[in-house]
Automatic annotation (TrEMBL):
Domain (N-acetyltransferase): residue spans on this chain: 13-172
Protein's UniProt keywords contain Acyltransferase: yes
Protein name as catalogued: GNAT family N-acetyltransferase
Pfam name, any one: Acetyltransf_3
Protein family according to the UniProt entry: Belongs to the acetyltransferase family. RimJ subfamily.
Keyword Metal-binding: no
Enzyme Commission numbers on file: 2.3.-.-
Annotated signal peptide: none
Organism name: Streptomyces galilaeus
Lineage top rank: taxon: Bacteria
Amino acid sequence: MDVTDAETGAEQVRLVPWGEGDFWLLERNNSPEMTDHLGGPETPEELADRHRRYLELDSGRMYRVVLAEGGETVGSIGYWERSWQGEPVWETGWGVLPEFQGRGLAARAARAVTDAVRKAVRETGGHRTLHAFPSVDHPASNGVCRRAGFTLLGPFDFEYPKGHWITSNDWYVDLAQ
C-alpha cells in the first residue's frame, strides 16, 4: 500500500507485511528512547514472543514501513483487535526509527494502515473504529494521530504493558466514513 503527498513532495511510504526476517526491527525499536512511553525495553524473550505474535496475527496485521523510493525500512505499524470499553475495536500502533523521525513518515504510515483496515472491513466485515492510544506525555505520537485524521476522544487510564498504567489519549477513526 503506497501513500503519496504530491502537493508537498513529501516522501512516500509503503507497508510491507511483517515477515520472519523482521525481528531485527523489534530489536532496533527496543531502546530506552523508543520505549520510554511504553514501559521500557523488553527482554529478549519478550521480543521473541512479540515477533511470533506479529507473524501469527489472525485478526489484524503488522507491517514494516519502508520508503517507497529505495525500499529502506523506516519503522513498523500494524493493527489488531482488542476490547475497548466493552466493545471490539481495531487498535493501531507504530514506531519510526530515530534517524527517520520528524519527516512525517509515521503520519503517512498511519493513513496507509487506516486505508488497509477500511479495505479489510469492506471486504470481510469487522469493527467500525480504529483507535490509537498514545501517552498524553508523547506529543509526537499525538501529532501523528492529528495529522493522520484521527479524532481525539480524550484521556483515559490505560494498561500497557500489563501491570504498567499510563494516561493515554484515545484517538479514533470511524471506518465507515
